[in-house]
Every structure is written in structure tokens, then in C-alpha cells.
Specification:
2 domains; single chain; Rossmann fold; 359 residues; alpha/beta; 9 helices; 23% strand; globular; six-stranded mixed beta sheet
Length: 359
């Protein structure tokens, strides 16, 4: 074969390799763009996803707390792409249904709200702390309730003080309660999701959290702790709490008066009506605020888990935590608010409760 013929035979092969390389680059770019597009679509909610903000329960002693908190919540959810039900429609619905309860929603009301107001979920919660001192404090719990069946779709707790954001020489300290509320709410909404939770374990137990008895000297510390447990149980891989509005409805229907304890007959009745596996009861034995760096906040909480199918206590524990327990250097690790001190206990109790033996 002559040199001219060999050159001519190599030329088509070279062009073929060049075409394959171009195709490879083209498909690689398309794949990358598709992956980016899919991620963006996954991060953004549907424009049709409409949320109603149900009145929050205000456990702080400041009436201003609601006026500051709700507008911040609305703005942040709108910026995430969600549609928020207008106040007039919400108020008219509450008047029509004669709703007086705040901070929780029962199943019937959730479903009715979904049908009549065309909302897919209801956001409600509690404002636990709102303190406008030199070191402002703010804390809240929130839950997203599905209007399809009244179940909890998302739950979060967040709290802090102005000093929590201070660095060396107090640089970064927040002195404004409005700015602190914005920071805390923004932190809470980082985990916000409209997807139902995926529990990894096969054995997931449905739990009713009963009102915790308040043995401390701080008003509403029992209620605050009850909602903390709802949040942390929701995050647990082993447990799924029913919405507190449904628990509250059962308490009224069955005329349950006791807190911290529960008659076994009531356990059976609640289990039958709510279709639950267990009931959580307990008490807040201490809930004490600190004072600067001199006196650390401290809390003590007791909890008991009852197997509703056997009317038997299968787990119980008590934890005490002080805000300066875990300081290791330059004040790092200090817990400055009693709310975060109590929440640390709740997290430890729920973690320990996962060891409960049901069989």
C-alpha cells in the first residue's frame, strides 16, 4: 500500500475519533446540566404548595412576641417560594369553627382547613422565650401539619441568646431582640421540608405525648417541655408522635385531668381512639434561669414511657443538666439559656428512650 493510500485510510479514523470525543463532551455537559437542574428543582417547592400559619401559643410574658415572630416567619417562607394563606381567610375560618386553641391542630380541623382554604399544610408552634434584656433571649418550637391526615410533616426547635453569637471581645454579640429572633428562626427553617419523614427502622412506634407536669417555679415550663418532646420524638428514627392537637382533643373527650401521671384505664382508651403504641408522661422538676456567667441555668426532667398495648411502663429516666457542665475553654460549651438546657435533657431522654424494649 502506498503512502498516499495509508494517509487516506488514517484520515476517516481520525475524524471518527474526533466525532466520538465531541459526542462524549456533549453528553457530559448535558448530564451535568440535568443534574444541576434536578438539584435546583428539588430544593425549590412547588408554587402551588400553600401553607396556613395557625396562631402560635405564646408562653413568654411579652405580647409583642407574636407581632415580631409571625411576620419574620412569613417573609422567610415566601422567600423560599411557598404561598402563605392571608390573615383574613385564616381569621374567618377560626371564627366560623369557633377555634380558641393555639399552638396545635386536631385532625378534623386540619383536614377541613385543607379542603375549605385549599392549603396543603399548617404551620404552628410555640414561642417559649422572648426576653428583651441586655442579653436578649428567644426560643420557639414549630411543626408543619399535613391537611391530608393531620400528621406531623416537620418539626424543629431553636433557641438562643445574644451572647451566643459573641466572639472574642464580644464581637458579633446581638443586642436586638428583633435581630436575634430573625437569626433563631432562620436557623430553625434550615431543616424545613414539606416531605413526609422517612423512618429507617422497620419498627416505628406511634407515641402520644401527654402534658408534662410542672413541678418548677416557672410558669408553663411543663407545656414548653411537652412541645420539645414532640419535636425530638419526630426526629427520632424509632418514634413518630401524633400531633398534640389530637392529644388535647382526647384529653377533653376522656376528661383526663392529671398531668405527669396517667390512669391505666385512660391509657387503654387513648390507645384505642388514637391508634397509638405508647404514651409518654413526665414532669419538669427544675427549670431555673441563670445570671450571666456567675450562675448557670439548670433543669431537671423526668419521663416515663408506657406500652399502651400492655398497660406497662417499659422505660423511665431522669436527667439533670447545668449550663456550665461542658465548658472546656474560653467559655466555649456554655449553655446560656434555660430553654437550651432543658432541650439538651430532652434530647438525651429521647436518645435513651430508643433503648426501650417493647417485646
Amino acid at each position: 500500500m502506498s503512502k498516499e493510500q495509508r494517509a487516506e485510510s488514517k484520515e476517516p479514523r481520525a475524524k471518527s475519533k474526533e466525532r466520538r470525543a465531541k459526542y462524549f463532551i456533549f453528553f457530559a455537559i448535558c448530564s451535568l446540566l440535568f443534574a444541576l437542574y434536578s438539584k435546583v428543582c428539588a430544593d425549590l417547592p412547588s408554587q402551588k404548595f400553600k401553607i396556613a400559619i395557625f396562631p402560635f401559643e405564646n408562653f413568654s410574658e411579652d405580647k409583642e412576641a407574636i407581632k415580631i415572630t409571625i411576620p419574620i416567619l412569613k417573609d422567610k417562607l415566601i422567600s423560599k417560594g411557598y404561598e402563605i394563606l392571608d390573615d383574613e381567610s385564616m381569621n374567618n375560618f377560626m371564627i366560623k369553627e369557633r377555634i380558641r386553641t393555639t399552638g396545635c391542630v386536631c385532625q378534623d380541623i386540619a383536614i377541613k382547613m385543607g379542603k375549605e382554604l385549599n392549603v396543603k399544610a399548617i404551620l404552628t408552634g410555640t414561642i417559649n422565650t422572648y426576653n428583651k434584656s441586655d442579653n436578649p433571649q428567644f426560643g420557639l418550637t414549630m411543626r408543619l401539619i399535613s391537611t391530608s391526615d393531620g400528621s406531623v410533616m416537620w418539626a424543629e426547635h431553636s433557641a438562643g441568646t445574644g451572647d451566643d453569637f459573641a466572639g472574642i471581645l464580644e464581637i458579633g454579640k446581638i443586642n436586638s431582640i428583633e435581630k436575634l429572633a430573625d437569626k433563631i428562626i432562620n436557623r430553625a427553617l434550615k431543616s424545613f421540608s414539606t416531605l413526609f419523614p422517612k423512618k429507617e427502622t422497620e419498627d416505628v412506634y406511634k407515641i402520644a405525648v401527654m402534658p408534662f407536669q410542672n413541678m418548677s417555679k416557672v410558669k408553663d415550663s411543663g407545656n414548653i417541655t411537652t412541645f420539645m418532646f414532640l419535636t425530638e420524638l419526630f426526629k427520632s428514627k424509632k418514634y413518630l408522635p401524633i400531633e398534640y392537637g389530637e392529644v388535647k382533643r382526647l384529653i377533653v373527650d376522656l376528661r383526663v385531668r392529671e398531668k405527669g401521671e396517667l390512669d391505666l384505664n385512660h391509657v387503654s382508651e387513648i390507645a384505642a381512639k388514637a391508634g397509638i403504641d405508647g404514651v409518654l408522661v413526665g414532669s419538669v422538676d427544675m427549670y431555673r434561669s441563670g445570671s450571666g456567667t456567675d450562675i448557670a441555668p439548670e433543669a431537671e426532667i423526668s419521663a416515663r414511657l408506657i406500652d399502651a398495648r400492655k398497660n406497662k411502663v417499659i422505660w423511665c429516666e431522669t436527667y439533670y443538666v447545668k449550663g456550665d457542665d461542658d465548658i472546656f475553654m474560653l467559655d466555649w460549651g456554655r449553655i446560656r439559656s434555660v430553654e437550651n438546657t432543658a432541650y439538651k435533657i430532652v434530647k438525651k431522654l429521647v436518645k435513651d428512650m430508643e433503648k426501650a424494649k417493647w417485646k
